[in-house]
Design a protein that fits this description.
- The strands form five sheets. This protein has a seven-stranded parallel β-sheet, sandwiched between helices. The protein has a two-stranded antiparallel sheet with strand order 6-15. It has a two-stranded parallel sheet with strand order 8-11.
- The protein has a domain of about 240 residues: Rossmann fold, CATH 3.40.50.
- Helix 2 crosses helix 3 and helix 7 packs across helix 11.
- The radius of gyration is 19 Å and the shape is globular.
- It is α/β, with parallel strands linked by helices.
- Helices cover about 40% and strands about 15% of the residues.
- The chain is built from eleven helices and 15 strands.
């Protein structure tokens, strides 16, 4: 029988309660929003993180006692995401940002969070990935050149790094592997171009890996352990951060956007060993994990010391993340069905 969720984990199997937890403002975010002036536009708000980030921004504004218009823009192919955004009190706009007329018609705002991007499907259609990850940022950077822009990027812009170290910092050379990572670096370059030519204030968020019970590296590992699927150890170490913590950092970064851009690696540290994560779930599920391959001496790692110095340590620890994901899985909680492919070492997605 699945273990009964303890008090504090009452959202197991209850997605409304889970989304409430993922969008609960931290005290630091609420304080930051007391001093943030103006409306907010969130682009690419229909993805895995978008709806809860929109609600987080709306709730932080209310708790801070500051009124602002929040507009969330996406194709909203999932109608549920559209409904979640509107229920948060934000205005939801359906738009394809690749449409030449879409970006110029968007509302003005002094604050922009850019979340649009393409990763999976790159191998099958690389031209579309490049269009989403470089053409769209160029259009947005020009349209909102007078605004503060926080743009989500990825830790994939870094090369594979020796596991004996803490991982690369923002001052280390980038070295993207594969076309997705290369196009993500292209996205960063387009926003940096706006900062150089227009003085646009930008913060680039190199994120990996955000997790919550319905998707992410921990959900991938938990599912493989429970269903007795082999876990490839070639990418033997990963960095993890709770999704709410990552969203809160991104919103707080609006106040720190600068020209040249502020570059922030956003994740948890130290890196977690995939083998140890699998065994943690194995003990919870009373299942012995199955492993394949051997650990390499390099992995996709990131050192988030700069972010931690600016915003403090992440509130949710690795052990808490494992506990929350394990309880959700034990209770039969839904998966988004979007594997991260964290074990891919060749950059092909």
């Amino acid at each position: 029988m699945p273990a009964r969720p303890r008090s504090g984990y009452r959202w197991a199997m209850d997605e409304t309660a889970l989304e409430d937890e993922l969008s609960r403002p931290t005290p630091a975010l609420t304080e930051a929003f007391r001093h943030l002036e103006g409306d907010l536009v969130i682009l690419g708000a229909g993805g895995k993180m978008g709806p809860t980030l929109v609600r987080l921004a709306a709730r932080a504004s209310i708790e801070a006692g500051t009124w602002r218009r929040i507009t969330a823009v996406a194709r909203f192919s999932d109608p549920r995401a559209f409904d979640l955004v509107e229920a948060a009190g934000a205005r939801a706009i359906r738009a394809d940002l690749l449409d030449p007329g879409a970006v110029p018609s968007l509302p003005d705002a002094p604050n922009v969070v850019f979340m649009a991007g393409q990763k999976f499907g790159t191998q099958a259609d690389p031209s579309h990935t490049w269009a989403v990850n470089t053409l769209v940022p160029g259009l947005v950077a020009h349209r909102y050149r007078a605004a503060r822009i926080v743009a989500f990027s990825t830790g994939n812009v870094y090369p594979l790094w020796p596991v004996a170290s803490a991982g690369p910092t923002e001052d280390d050379p980038v070295g993207p592997v594969g076309e997705y990572a290369q196009s993500a670096l292209g996205r960063e370059r387009l926003f940096a171009h706006a900062a150089a030519h227009y003085g646009t204030r930008v913060a680039l968020i190199r994120l990996n890996y955000a997790v919550e019970p319905r998707y992410g590296v921990l959900r991938d590992i938990a599912d493989r352990v429970r269903t007795r699927q082999p876990i490839d150890l070639a990418m033997g170490w990963v960095n993890l951060i709770w999704q709410r913590d990552a969203s809160a950092i991104a919103l707080r970064a609006l106040a720190h956007a600068a020209a040249p851009p502020l570059v922030l690696t956003v994740t948890g540290r130290p890196a977690s060993r995939v083998r140890d994560l699998a065994w943690a779930f194995g003990r919870r599920f009373d299942v012995e994990p199955i492993f394949a391959g051997t650990e390499s001496d390099t992995a996709l790692l990131s050192d988030s010391a700069r972010s931690e110095a600016l915003f403090g340590p992440n509130p949710v620890s690795q052990d808490e993340m494992i506990e929350r994901v394990a309880r959700w899985v034990e209770a039969g909680g839904r998966s988004l069905g979007k594997p991260t492919h964290f074990d891919a070492r060749d950059g092909r997605f």
